[in-house]
Design a protein that fits this description.
Elements lengths: L10 E4 L5 H11 L7 H11 L6 E5 L2 E14 L5 E12 L8 H15 L4 E4 L13 E2 L2 E8 L15 E5 L5 H11 L7 E2 L4 H4 L15 E7 L2 E15 L2 E13 L2 H13 L3 E9 L18 E4 L2 E4 L2 H7 L6 E8 L8 E7 L4 E5 L6 E4 H7 L6 H6 L4 E2 L4 H9 L12
Parallel strand pairs: 4-5, 12-13, 16-19
Antiparallel strand pairs: 1-2, 2-3, 3-4, 3-9, 5-15, 6-15, 7-13, 7-14, 8-10, 10-11, 11-12, 16-17, 17-18, 19-20
Bound molecules: acetyl coenzyme *A.
């Protein structure tokens, strides 16, 4: 596909090692210009960013556009691990904004992702309004909460007392925590298997993330001598005239079984001198919400998390399984990736699926964005139809497809990228 350069740009090219400082400088400026530590920059430059998958737009010798694409594997409903492009590090110089620089990078990137054979692209958005035009849709959500742990109690399941917790320095138990995390990845759609190096991001603990709270703390959970979970968090205790007013701020938590999960949450609820627990981006169906005595005093908020774009409709829909038998023909609209447009027949069940081109009459009409929204099971086709975004052309097809796309557990992305 031909690539048009936006006004004022002279070249769009794959990143070269020598371009790094300019490319990264452009990116940091686009995000407000905060300085990052040498350790953080080196981790991204030397280990995490794959320069062959990154793009830069140039105006003469100046970089004015940056975009990258990690090679991740995404857990999809049914548990398969599918190669995806993790779109990231997107920034356009304010001197060159709104002239199509981002559009030129998205065009090239989606063509590249297709040629790499990755059926999906995923991202977390700085602003939700940016990516819909390129075919991305919000597909997972996270819950944030500020729990009044001075008032709210937690009822834990049998077996919780058998879990032992011990404090460790986060960097000392990196391998233990990563091994636990890796075992949780296949259990929920939306989770990512990442290349080595990513586990260190969670313990970099930059001063600016602390917001007055402690350095990162870690407890590891064990059952019968085996590590079964961990929580990483900060504590801020403020002394007031009335006594103390401390808060626990959870960074991340992973558990291999319900008793471990409950033990970790009970621990976070109970740390002395604290009266609140702040959590961000947790699964919308996580167990603690059904164990608390007072959900209103948990002050829940919902936020969009992972955005999904089907790059190859057929391969993407065939890569997951379906909760109920399904046999429907979609009429798909896709202006930005026209190779997806047209009719596709999806047949599948809990064991597997196929999705192939067809000339049969369509049952449901939608755009590629609606398929992205429902792909991981976190948004229903019925809800999108009620919003006027899916049209039912054969009676019954909506109910059939809607129940098939749903899942037993809510999809979830544990961290941004
Ligand atoms: C996955 C990630 O990395 S998310 C991070 C994204 N980056 C940032 O937020 C950093 C700060 N912002 C930026 O660098 C830039 O403003 C970008 C990357 C968001 C947009 O880059 P631009 O080159 O200005 O976008 P471009 O000119 O291609 O815009 C294409 C269209 O999207 C629209 N658009 C672009 N940015 C936004 C936005 N933030 N909100 C709403 N609409 C937007 C434009 O108005 C334009 O619409 P039109 O075609 O109807 O005229």
């Amino acid at each position: 596909m031909a690539h048009h350069l936006p006004d004022g740009a002279t070249e769009l090219r794959v990143l070269r090692r020598d371009d790094w400082d300019q490319w990264h400088g452009n990116l940091m400026r686009a995000f407000g210009g905060a300085e990052e530590s040498a350790e953080v920059v080196a981790l991204w430059r030397d280990e995490l960013v794959d320069v062959d998958r990154a793009l830069g737009v140039w105006d003469g010798d100046r970089c004015v556009g940056s975009a990258g694409a990690y090679a991740f594997r995404l857990t999809v409903p049914g548990g398969a691990s599918v190669p995806v492009a993790g779109v990231t590090l997107v920034g356009v110089a304010a001197t060159h904004r709104r002239r199509g620089v981002l559009t030129s990078m998205m065009r090239r990137q989606l063509d590249d992702v297709r040629s790499w054979g990755e059926p999906l692209a995923v991202l977390t958005a700085s602003e939700p309004a940016i990516y819909g035009r390129f075919g991305y849709a919000q597909a997972t959500f996270g819950i944030s909460a500020e729990i009044d742990t001075g008032r709210v109690t937690l009822s834990v399941p049998d077996g919780t007392d058998a879990v032992r917790l011990r404090y460790e320095r986060p960097a000392d138990v990196l391998d233990v925590c990563e091994a636990v995390y890796a075992r949780t990845v296949p259990a929920r759609a939306g989770m990512l298997a990442r290349q080595p190096g990513w586990e260190r991001v969670g313990v970099l603990d930059p001063e600016r993330d602390r917001d007055g709270a402690s350095a990162l703390q870690c407890v590891v959970a064990e059952r019968d001598g085996e590590p079964t979970g961990y929580a990483r968090f900060r504590v801020a205790v403020r002394w007031t005239d009335a006594g103390h007013d401390g808060q626990v701020v959870l960074q991340d938590l992973a558990a291999l079984d319900p008793a471990t999960e409950a033990a970790l949450w009970r621990f976070l609820f109970g740390i002395d001198l604290t009266t609140s627990l702040k959590v961000r981006g947790r699964p919308v169906d996580e167990a603690w919400q059904f164990q608390v005595s007072d959900i209103r005093r948990c002050r829940l908020r919902l936020r969009d998390s992972l955005y999904v774009r089907l790059v190859e409709v057929g391969a993407a829909l065939a890569a997951r399984t379906y909760q109920a038998p399904v046999d429907v023909v979609f009429e798909v609209e896709d202006v930005f990736c026209p190779w997806n447009a047209g009719r596709w027949r999806l047949t599948g069940d809990t064991k597997g699926a196929s999705c192939v081109r067809t000339t049969d009459a369509a049952d449901l009409a939608l755009s590629v964005r609606e398929l992205g929204a429902v792909y991981l099971g976190g948004v229903s086709l019925a809800a999108l139809a009620a919003a006027g975004r899916v049209r039912e052309l054969r009676q019954g097809a909506l109910a059939e497809a809607s129940s098939a796309f749903g899942g037993l557990v809510a999809p979830w992305l544990p961290h941004g990228f």
